[in-house]
Design goal:
single chain, 244 residues, alpha+beta, DNA polymerase, domain 1, Cytidine Deaminase, domain 2, 2 domains, 9 helices, 40% helix, 14% strand, elongated
């Protein structure tokens, strides 16, 4: 069994659209900025289904994920396949495209982005954690001007105190001569509220930082907006769980 979509003679091709409505031609003539999100997706999808164009299919795809491109980018192949007209091949190509975008976003991030506030750190972390299906604990190592020195992945998977050992965090901080650091991890569920283990790990690492002279200035939990949540991240410092 391969990932090819079965042939379907009922498909509606982009080439069947009037030339001025074809996304590829419009992109070539006007640039990608002139295209709607659905039109850009239609270029990846190439074909529609059952008398509907690729643009129509792209609009269906966006609607399935509440017109939230972030949710669409994080969707699994199985979730993408719940949209009629998205077979295994299309779903795989979409996942590949979105993951390339995630890698590119990290690659083109300024070499030493500023992390002087929870909002600035969250702006950076959204691209780091986008599409991740398991928790990751990162240590953002900072210089004395709150610029990022290095983003270190400490653990993969659900956090517990045995995994997030201080030596793993502060060995890298000392190696890179960091003045301070921000802890950060993601909640794939979308709810950024910290768990009891999150709080215990933070307390342990804050205390260890005081011993080695490297301040843990914050711990950010990155989730997603939705269900009445205004913010997609939780800052321990803003909530008084880490002091000055």
């Amino acid at each position: 069994m391969d990932y090819s979509d079965p042939p379907d003679t009922s498909r509606f091709l982009i080439a069947d659209l009037p030339s001025h409505d074809r996304p590829r031609e419009r992109l070539q003539a006007l640039g990608p900025e002139a295209l709607r999100t659905a039109e850009l997706l239609a270029i990846l999808l190439r074909t529609g289904l059952q008398g509907r164009s690729a643009v129509d299919l792209a609009q269906d795809l966006l609607a399935r994920f509440d017109n939230d491109l972030g949710l669409l980018a994080a969707a699994t192949i199985e979730e993408l396949g719940t949209v009629k007209g998205i077979g295994p091949a299309k779903a795989t190509e979409l996942r590949a495209a979105f993951h390339l975008a995630t890698r590119l976003a990290v690659h083109v991030t300024p070499e030493r982005p500023q992390m002087g506030s929870p909002e600035l750190a969250a702006d950076y972390l959204r691209s780091v954690f986008r599409g991740k299906q398991q928790e990751e604990l990162h240590a953002l190592l900072l210089d004395n001007k709150n610029r990022l020195v290095k983003d270190v992945v400490v653990t993969l998977g659900l956090l517990d105190r045995s995994q997030a050992h201080p030596r793993e965090v502060f060995r890298a901080a000392i190696q890179h001569a960091a003045a301070k650091l921000i802890l950060a991890h993601n909640h794939p569920s979308g709810d950024p509220s910290p768990s009891r283990p999150d709080i215990q790990i933070t307390e342990t690492l804050v205390a260890a930082g005081k011993l080695v002279g490297i301040q843990v200035v914050d711990h950010l939990v990155i989730g997603r907006r939705g269900d009445g949540r205004i913010h997609d991240f939780y800052s321990f410092r803003e909530h008084g769980l880490i002091g000055e």
